[in-house]
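Holo prediction — ribulose-5-phosphate.
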Amino acid sequence: MSGVNEKKVAALEAVKYVKSGMKVGLGTGSTAFYMIEAIGEQVKNGLKIKAVATSVETEKLAKKLGIEIITLAEAKRLDITIDGADEVNEDFQLIKGGGGALLREKIVAHNTDLNIIIADSSKSVSRLGKFKLPIETIPFATQLIIEELKTMKLSPVQRLRGDQAYKTDENNDIVDIDIWNCEDALQVLEERLKSIPGIVETGLFLNTTNVVILGQGEKAVSRKR
Ligand code: 5RP
């Protein structure tokens, strides 16, 4: 079965966790799309939830499908968030941000009781880092951060859209770095990156995930922490 269908299989399994009365975080990306679509369908059939979107794109889609969107401040705390990932390892650690929404995604995950990650089987890895790690940077500092990351041998590349700098929903830049040959433990790397002024957030999600649901062929395979 193709990756696209595995995404849907995982998404539909995750939606089973969503119950009326919940406050739900909605992730971003092509896998999250299937989850939002399925929740939209259930809302039409009477499911009552309030949702917080992790991106402008997700907010637009959710509203179009009739899902009530509230701010994170209104929600205060979310019961459940369902989001995708670019890579997931055995220890429930992730690389996220391929779609550029990592900052809001990490904030939402931090403020959620149960974080469920959905993905097709290609996202499951024994070691993180084949996917380039996205870093969100303040435009004022981006070029100097790129120089600093070069000295750390992380091969930084500023993300572009066409020939312009890619901009996040917060109007920041994204720099993608190569952590494959980095010898630091992931937690140490995260701390080193976050200690550089102007790096707002990284796509390393190390301690937030509770459940991983992978589409594997026609089956959804769940792992719980
Ligand atoms: C967006 C993300 C996405 O969850 C991640 O890129 C996976 O996307 P997709 O489901 O399209 O493969 O982190 O910032």
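READOUT: The longest strand covers residues 112-120.
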